[in-house]
Specification:
Layout (H helix, E strand, L loop, with lengths): L2 E3 L6 E3 L1 E4 L11 H13 L4 E3 L8 H13 L4 E6 L4 H15 L4 E6 L5 H8 L4 H10 L3 E8 L3 H10 L4 E5 L10 H4 L1 H7 L2 E5 L11 H9 L5 E4 L4 H12 L6 H11 L34
Parallel strand pairs: 3-4, 3-10, 4-5, 5-6, 6-7, 7-8, 8-9, 9-10
Antiparallel strand pairs: 1-2
The structure holds NADP nicotinamide-adenine-dinucleotide phosphate.
NADP nicotinamide-adenine-dinucleotide phosphate (NAP) binds next to strand 10 and helix 10.
Length: 295
């Protein structure tokens, strides 16, 4: 599989990576299946595994940990803090390390920074970023990262405030058309040497019927790797086939694809860009939607 440099980390990553949010019971993925998917991913050359403290009350991290316990050196593990405060984030990191059965993570992210209020809380005095800097000094974390789906201007402002090593952002073909990370964020990330990981490749299932082209579209962007949210071995196999033989779409093919998916650029097709994409902890609409899709 093709590999690409990962920002200034000094590492190269294969273009296909695994998002581990869906390797959980609630997605119909048993522990045995999750472990098999993780091991197969490693055997087929995937190195990068993304999880988060908040996913399924820790079950995603625990399952990554079952494999990390034996194969830690082969894995690049990224996890995230949901808590905006320094002390809360530190507690989440300690829990993450226990669940992951490791004494360090390669990347630790500010999770889903959807608006300026959340960015202020996380990067301000007593915020989660302070815990990240301290954890990096202590060797618990190698690189500091941020993620976002909603408005690229929030992540651009984050880069002005702090030299994040990496970023995880939504780059599906649907995102091309509205609050586009590909158009607004990737050029600055490239200029600053920030390693970029793409997500929402299948638009949370909206693009499942055009999965191969959805993946080829994203892999052709100027980023390092993409995390695909597989919950079955069949999905992993399909994604590996595309990544192992990756060629970008031609100009006309890409334009035709844009025409085909344009009708899906609606709040119900891409809920992560809609005003009522809620806080997953309490599942309520955000107070400040940052001027996203009003329908
Ligand atoms: N803020 C953040 O940082 C954040 C937020 C969300 C997720 N993530 C990470 O991103 C990863 C990817 O999740 P996402 O939200 O970006 O979702 P996604 O990859 O756009 O969508 C994943 C869903 O697409 C469907 N699908 C259809 N064909 C597929 C194929 N060939 N391969 C994989 N999935 C296929 C599956 O649903 P069916 O099985 O129902 O068909 C799967 O659950 C997660 O695992 C997680 O690690 C990060």
């Amino acid at each position: 599989m093709e590999t690409r440099p990962f920002g200034k980390t000094g590492e190269r990553m294969p273009i296909l990576s695994l998002g581990c949010q869906r390797l959980v019971d609630e997605e119909g993925c048993s522990e045995e299946q999750a472990v098999a998917i993780l091991n197969t991913a490693l055997e087929r050359g995937i190195r990068y595994f993304d999880t988060a403290w908040i996913y399924s009350e820790g079950q995603s991290e625990q399952r990554v940990g079952l494999v990390a316990k034996h194969r830690r050196k082969e894995m690049w593990i990224a996890t995230k803090t949901w808590d905006t405060s320094r002390d809360g984030a530190r507690r989440q990191l300690e829990e993450s390390l226990t669940r992951l059965q490791t004494d360090y993570v390669d990347e630790w992210r500010l999770h889903n920074v959807w608006g300026m209020d959340r960015l202020d809380a996380m990067t301000g005095p007593g915020g989660a970023l302070e815990a990240m800097i301290q954890a990096r000094e202590e060797g618990l974390v190698r690189f500091i990262s941020i993620s976002g789906h909603s408005d690229p201007q929030v992540q651009l402002e984050a880069l002005r405030r702090f030299p994040f090593d990496t970023a995880l952002v939504a780059v599906s073909v649907l995102d091309h058309f509205i609050y586009s990370f590909a158009e607004e964020f990737l050029p600055m990330a490239q200029y600053r040497g920030v390693g970029v990981v793409g997500m929402k490749i299948f638009g949370l299932r909206t693009l499942a019927h055009v999965a191969d082209r959805a993946l080829r579209y994203a892999l052709a962007l100027p980023l390092t790797t993409v995390i695909v949210g597989c919950s079955t071995m069949e999905q992993l196999e399909a994604d590996l086939v595309v990544a192992e033989s990756f060629t970008p779409m031609s100009g006309p093919e890409r334009l035709e694809f844009f025409r085909e998916v344009l009708p899906l650029v609606r709040p119900e097709g891409m809920p992560w860009k809609a005003v009522d994409w809620g806080d997953p902890v309490e599942w309520k609409p955000r107070k400040e939607p940052a001027g996203l899709f009003q329908w």
